[in-house]
From TrEMBL:
InterPro entries: cNMP-bd_dom, cNMP-bd_dom_sf, Env_Response_Regulators, HTH_CRP, RmlC-like_jellyroll, WH-like_DNA-bd_sf, WH_DNA-bd_sf. Keywords: Activator, DNA-binding, Kinase, Transcription, Transcription regulation, Transferase. One of its GO terms (molecular function) is DNA-binding transcription factor activity. GO terms for cellular component: cytosol. It comes from the Bacteria. This is cAMP-binding domain of CRP or a regulatory subunit of cAMP-dependent protein kinases. Residues 15-118 form the Cyclic nucleotide-binding domain. The keyword DNA-binding applies. It comes from Salipaludibacillus aurantiacus. Residues 149-222 form the HTH crp-type domain. The keyword Transit peptide does not apply.
């Protein structure tokens, strides 16, 4: 577990990448470092939005609960991302829950303090706006990529999205270093476990992907091109 933060750590986060060393030190002064075990909830939908979190290592799942009590994951957080990213300056409660997919190390800053620091720095405000704009574009692309697709194609595009969002380039292809079970993929793609198993088996048979210890490697990212999705194009461009 990290016991302290450096300006180098802080600047790895997109919204802080333009900060001066003095600005970094202000962030560090208000930061609290914490560790969570796999499966622990960091906050729950509806809780007072008192903290903004910054992931140093591991993976976080963001999820919402519908009126029937069913849980719906809608995004995953990778190292050096802030969460929750929406609701700055306006939300008083968390709009979703966050759970540790793996053991994680994070730091958090009281929301009121961080928002005050951002308001005092016009360059930082512009950086935050740019960051949130790019986030909205990415979310829109994912939603567009899933519209009007059959269930199997939704699974494929979900894997393409995870590759572009979480993937790391390796000698064998694009590794998604966050573990996923068949149920995880079904919940995230909005399909059934049976559909996911069928789609995964087909992709494995074509040597498009392989799975070891719940980690997916995409060996043929070009497979996803021409699949009625901007996500697949982004998958290729991200690692070209």
């Amino acid at each position: 577990m990290k016991t302290n933060l450096s300006c180098k750590d802080i600047k790895k986060f997109d919204i802080f990448s333009m900060l001066t060393n003095e600005g970094c030190k202000k962030i560090i002064d208000y930061a609290y470092i914490r560790s969570y075990r796999k499966g622990q909830m960091l906050f729950t939908e509806g809780d007072p939005r008192e903290r903004l979190y910054f992931l140093l290592d591991g993976y976080i799942r963001l999820e919402r609960i519908d009126i029937e009590g069913d849980v719906h994951p809608f995004n995953y957080v990778k190292p050096f991302q802030m969460f929750p990213e929406g609701g700055l300056f306006q939300d008083t409660n968390y709009a979703h829950s966050a759970v540790a997919v793996t053991n994680v190390n994070i730091f958090y800053i009281p929301a009121e303090i961080l928002e005050s620091l951002i308001k005092l720095n016009s360059k930082q405000m512009i950086q935050v706006i740019r960051h949130l704009s790019s986030l909205l574009i990415a979310q829109e692309l994912r939603l567009q990529s899933l519209q009007n697709l059959d269930a199997c194609r939704r699974v494929e595009q979900t894997i393409a999205h995870l590759g572009s969002h979480l993937g790391q380039e390796t000698a064998d292809g694009i590794l998604i270093p966050c573990p996923f079970t068949m149920n995880d993929l079904a919940n995230f793609s909005g399909t059934s476990r049976e559909t996911v198993c069928h789609s995964i088996n087909g992709l494995k048979a074509q040597k498009v992907i392989s799975i070891h210890s719940k980690l997916i490697t995409i060996h043929r990212p070009d497979y996803f091109t021409g699949k009625e999705s901007d996500t697949s194009e982004f998958l290729l461009s991200s690692f070209s």
